[in-house]
Amino acid sequence: MCRSHPDRPAARRAQTTVWLPSPYFRYALATLAIVVPTLAQAAQISDLAETSWTEQAIEFFSLEQPIVRTAIVGTVLIGFCCGILGSFLVVRKLALLGDTLSHAVLPGVALGFLWNASKDPWAIFIGATAAGVLGVALVGWIKQTTHLKEDSAMGMVLAGFYGLGICMTTMIQNMAMGNKSGLDKFFFGQAAALSSGDIQLLGIISLVTILLVLLFYKEFLAISFDSGFAQTIGMPARALHYGLMALLTFAVVVSLQAVGVVLVSALLITPAAAAFLLTDRMHWMLVLAAAFGMLSGVLGAFISYLSNNLPTGPLIVLGATLIFVLALVFGPRHGLLSKILRRRRQRKRIALENTLKSVFHLCENSQFTRKVFEASELALERNSNLPAIESEIRNLVKSQLAERVAGTNGARLSGQAQFQLTPQGWIRACEIVRNHRLWELYLTNAADYESDHVHDDAEEIEHLLGSDLVRRLEERLQNPIHDPHGRLIPTREQITA
């Protein structure tokens, strides 16, 4: 049964049971179905034509279709706003606030629709912004007037406003005008249905966002990292906080149409979190987060265009999640792969330095009269087996810290291979021994450790001491000559000689 005309009187609609349109009207409907996106296409950008993915990709990036151009511009602007403003949420550890805002605006969306009984972008924007600001103010009021923590206040506001928004949207859907409201699309978004009014609103909000961030960058930076310091130097920290929250509310509201209430918080946090893993500078974080947000928007729109019946909003969030996973794994400083490689390099370096220290002990035991040693001697000193010692010697030779001594006549196979440290290896061995013995002396003199309890601590710290800290230790200990056990501490002159 076909839906009756919306202007028909209610009594007549109630009496209508079957309505058979004329052939001309059926032809008009078929034509409109080709030109106008159907309800099945409302949440995704692809068309119904069955073509190869390469042809669809070329068609997508050629930007010939107006719906594609609108979706790309809209998702790029949304990703830009959410990336920049989400960065301040991440550094302030207020990720839950983005979720609170995204759910708190839902009653405002319903009120904006009731304003003139249509999906007017400006009416919905005003209503949703008012609801978002009210939600943020309510969180602050609960935190200040009760003993509840901020996360508890945000959780209550999130649940309360979201429940109220669901009730209001459900009531609107049950009204006579609710059949055409489309408010249910605000839950998961419909990027393909962005209108020119939505694009204009997105452009204005993006322009306002970049101007205010550039104008108040230092102030936003101060309240994000040290709000107490900002207040002591006379900054209006509270006004700046609520100004930033207002910008966040704007970003959330304009993102609802494309991503939806449920997923907009992910678009706020995920690109900023990925940027946070890649840099320690706030200005670079803003740039990277904005770039990641725009990239995830284009990626989500592109995959939605290639797929069948996959909505754009969730794909945008999945695109942002993919970028975060790549940053998490391959980040140069905080990535999992780089951490694994650093730990491996650190273990290798510590093993080499422990071997060098053992060679120094062999030299010390011979009153520094010998420089060439056999693998079996090093194995005895390190309390290890010959294959492991041979591996350590090979690593020293590979690192140019030791060299083989010619004329062994195949003695390597019997465990009598000979080697000696290179000048570079000897300097590093002396530095490690000096670090170890200086730290032992420091613990006994400054921390009142017993001399027989300092060895294990020195074993760990000797690999971490830098030249500046070693120099400060020498000055504090007045350039000592012996460690707590009476052994000589290599001096800087001896090491470089």
Walk me through the structure.
By secondary structure, the chain is mainly α. It folds into three domains: 53-334, ABC transporter involved in vitamin B12 uptake, BtuC (Orthogonal Bundle); 338-405 and 412-421, Arc Repressor Mutant, subunit A; 426-496, Arc Repressor Mutant, subunit A (Orthogonal Bundle), CATH 1.10.10. The protein has 23 helices and three strands. The chain has helices at residues 10-15, 23-35, 53-62, 66-91, 95-104, 106-116, 121-145, 150-174, 185-188, 196-215, 217-225, 227-232, 237-259, 264-276, 282-306, 312-330, 336-365, 375-382, 386-398, 423-446, 455-461, 467-476, 492-496; strands at 373-374, 402-404, 418-421. Strands 1-3-2 form a three-stranded antiparallel sheet. The protein is elongated, with a radius of gyration of 35 Å. The chain starts with 9 loop residues before the first helix and ends with a helix.
